[in-house]
Design goal:
Largest interface: A-B, 30 and 37 residues
Structural class of chain B: alpha+beta
Number of domains of chain B: 2
CATH class of the largest domain in chain A: Alpha Beta
Shape of chain B: globular
Helix content of chain A: 25-40%
Strand order of the largest sheet of chain B: 2-1-5-3-4
CATH class of the largest domain in chain B: Alpha Beta
Largest sheet of chain A: 5 strands, antiparallel
Number of domains of chain A: 2
Order of helices and strands of chain A: EHEHEEEHHHHHEEHEEEEEEHHH
CATH architecture of the largest domain in chain B: Roll
Structural class of chain A: alpha+beta
Shape of chain A: globular
CATH superfamily of the largest domain in chain B: Beta-grasp domain
Number of helices of chain B: 6
Number of strands of chain A: 13
Order of helices and strands of chain B: EEHEEEHHHHH
Oligomer: heterodimer
Largest sheet of chain B: 5 strands, mixed
Number of helices of chain A: 11
């Protein structure tokens, strides 16, 4: 094959990745729009190890070459991730687009990546030399900046199995289908014995990477909902002070207003 | 260097060009499947929709290397089927076609939908066709045509 390699196993894919200067190709939906010249693709859609959705004690493990359509058909994928996946583009794109590709494209607009941020997902990266597990926010460093070595591939997304049941998810786009997020928001809430144990909030499409401020979140942890309510305005102000948004298809001011409204709605939804 | 082998509308073919070439352009220029239309090259309009191993894909967003060993079906192949005849009749009866540019993609999207869900609701039809843009009809006639094809073609899907 001219300018391409089709890998039939992960071992073969990693050997090709190490030996040649190749661009990993999963679904192609971003790569073919980009249409880079003079590249060679490593086709991954036939690598069985990257096509599985598995569950262990802690995680739902989604293979990097699993498509959004396949994830939507799986009983194991958390509802929050399915909601985000179902809002991506349209059927033909969901049939091709993959979790690994959404990450690998390095855009803060990637709808599945927003969920990985809010869920504290980890990624399993593999190379001929071995593997490493990284937190998604340590991997996704900025626009098109990923902590991925030239000989590595994204193998799996490790989504926590529990704790994602209570959530808010909103995608603001220009139309229902085929919309690129202008602002996207995901929030996850959990409480135990009347005390807040998780109040994660992530913002997509508004800066170079997905935004999440764990130190601000921490100010509500351990509080009762009533205590949190008393802190609500200070909490929102802390976000408003911290969030420096970039202009995109819409103005930075519009994005900021929408982000703050969505954050407020999220708190209100869970009684705060 | 080995060619890329796949079946196109049931016929085995071998492509000797680059694995990075766009399926859309190869279908149109190399194999003269001109039912496959080029609208945007960004996966946003659905005019280049084809079926690959029975799955609806935008051929503008598929590199040739990804079709190695696959079954590719375009309107040139699909039009030989009974299912096409049912869709053709329904689209004609409801005047669901105006300029026609989106129609090959629209019909293949309908086929992909009906082969998974033989009796879709109106919402499911709209969702199934949501990746296919039409600038003429306002969509309602197309949605009704797909619903009629599902009803009239009962048992075909």
């Amino acid at each position: 094959m001219v300018n391409g390699y089709v890998a039939a196993s992960l071992k073969e894919a990693l050997e090709i990745r190490a030996a040649h200067d190749v661009v990993p190709y999963a679904g192609g939906t971003d790569l073919m729009v980009e249409n880079r010249k003079g590249v060679e693709y490593l086709f991954l859609s036939k690598v069985p190890e990257l096509k599985q959705i598995a569950v262990d004690d802690e995680y739902v493990r989604i293979g990097a070459a699993v498509t959004f359509t396949e994830a939507l058909a799986s009983a194991d994928v958390p509802r929050l991730m399915k909601e985000a996946a179902s809002r991506i583009a349209a059927p033909a794109i969901r049939n091709a687009g993959t979790f690994g590709g959404n990450l690998g494209n390095g855009s803060a607009k990637a709808d599945s990546v927003l969920i990985e941020f809010v869920a504290d997902a980890k990624l399993r990266l593999v190379s001929k030399k071995g593997e490493r597990i990284v937190d998604v926010d340590k991997f996704y460093l900025g626009r098109k900046k990923l902590d991925l070595a030239d000989d590595e591939l994204i193998a799996e997304i490790l989504l926590p199995k529990q704790g994602l049941e209570q959530y808010s998810y909103e995608k603001v786009g220009g139309r229902n289908a085929l919309a690129i997020s202008r602002v996207s928001f995901a929030g996850v809430f959990a409480a135990e014995g009347g005390r807040i144990t998780n109040v994660a909030a992530a913002f997509g499409a508004v800066a170079d990477t997905v935004l999440r401020y764990k130190d601000i979140e921490a100010t509500l942890l351990g509080k009762t909902v009533d205590e949190a309510k008393a802190l609500k305005e200070d909490y929102l102000k802390a976000y408003a002070d911290r969030m420096v948004l970039t202009r995109g298809r819409v103005s930075a001011e519009y994005r900021k207003t929408v982000c703050m409204n969505l954050l407020r709605d999220f708190l209100t939804k869970f009684g705060i | 260097m080995a060619d890329i082998r796949f079946t196109l509308n049931g016929k085995e073919v071998a492509y000797g060009g680059s694995a990075t070439d766009r399926l859309l352009e190869v279908l149109r220029n190399e194999y003269r499947c001109t039912s496959v239309k080029c609208g945007c090259k960004e996966g946003e309009c659905g005019a280049c929709s084809v079926l690959i191993d029975g799955t609806l894909l935008n051929s503008c967003c598929v590199a040739m290397g990804a079709v190695e060993g696959a079954r590719v079906v375009t309107m040139e192949g699909f039009r030989e089927t009974e299912r096409f005849a049912a869709l053709d009749k329904a689209f004609g009866e409801l005047s669901a076609v105006q300029c026609g540019f989106c129609i090959p993609g629209m019909v293949l999207a309908a086929e992909a939908l009906l082969s998974k869900n033989a009796h879709p609701t109106e919402d499911e039809i709209r969702e199934g066709l949501s990746g296919n843009l039409c600038r003429c009809t306002g969509y309602n006639a197309i949605v009704n045509a797909v619903a009629n094809a599902a009803k009239e073609g009962n048992g075909l899907w």
